[in-house]
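Q: Could you write out the predicted structure for this multi-component system? I'm mainly interested in how the pieces pack against one another.
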Amino acid sequence: MTDGLATVRAALRRALASDHREARAMPAAFYTDPELAAIEAEHLFGKEWHCVGRVEEVAEPGRFMPYRLANEPLVIAHGHDGTIRALSNVCRHRGALIVREKGRGRRLLCPYHHWAYGLDGALAAAPGMPERGDFRVAECRLPEFPCEVWMGFVYVNLDRTAAPLAPRLAGLEALVAPYHMEEMWLGWLGEEVWETNWKAMVENYMEGYHLTPLHKTTLNALNPTALARHIPAGEHWFGYAVGFPADLPRVTAGHPDLTKEQSDTCVMAMVQPGGGIGLAADYSSFLCLQPEGADRVRYKAGVLFWGDDWPRSAVDRAVELFHETMAEDRSVLEPMMRGYRSAHHESGPLAPPWLEGPILDLARYVGRRLLPVMEEAA
Ligand code: FES
Ligand SMILES: [Fe+2]
């Protein structure tokens, strides 16, 4: 075991043993160690449920989209039987990637030699290929992975023995159900790559401490640090809440199921490990993190809107604010990797739970999942 992994292991043990009053930031190796990134790829991203996007992206039967999860090329396909499936996107012939971009049709056609698969993953045609003892068209199919739709999001698990997602999120669902994310419409969808560690992105998305200082002229007007509070973490998710100022003009108060207090509160939740939801009554955002090693993250992001009261200009302004806010976060999170590589960096104490509670929640989650694996390997 490298020094970096040994340091991380000690810090994770401490995080599991300490309470919020004595919590400390994680050491630099937590964000930079390539061995840890490989363990995460196998044991977090290879075994947990991951949000891969919104159900609208594959809204009707016949629609499909590619997605990469932990180096595993996938295609999410809405079959003509009405089922949304997560299939391997690797051709069973010689391994070409079948789907490169979103599309619609009756077949998934491999561009190389035109083997064609149904949207259920079964091979339908293999031009010029004779059937023989070790090859029957009808028996050849793309591997399929567990796939569920939760609150309008598509979730996939690469572990075919995984327990279902919905019961794991029952506690979070009770908190977010009245906002009816499944009824919100997608106003913007995009993808970016940041040169930072995925856990630094999770921490940033999940703490209210930086809202006022870093987002002074942007998000601070909507969700100032002073209105943040910690939500006790669940086993498979964690989060915090942050209020809106009482006099803030909003386009809509949201779904009638919401109480006034819920309508005036934004819930920031992370479905572990990397499915972020920034949920508010009027409009919401989400992130699907796809780490590419220790210091690079690809992510899909979107902005969702509730109801029909939105003028185009208000939609554009909300999306613009999302971009401005993300750019401010990026301006810290990318250079921070240089800070983590300093020989003189020593991590400091964390602020109280209402400000930085989710940072400890993340460390505890990683500790629960990875310490047994790391200890076995030591
Ligand atoms: S690799 Fe797909 S058809 Fe040959
Ligand atoms: Fe931020």
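A: Regarding packing and overall arrangement: The chain has a mean pLDDT of 96.
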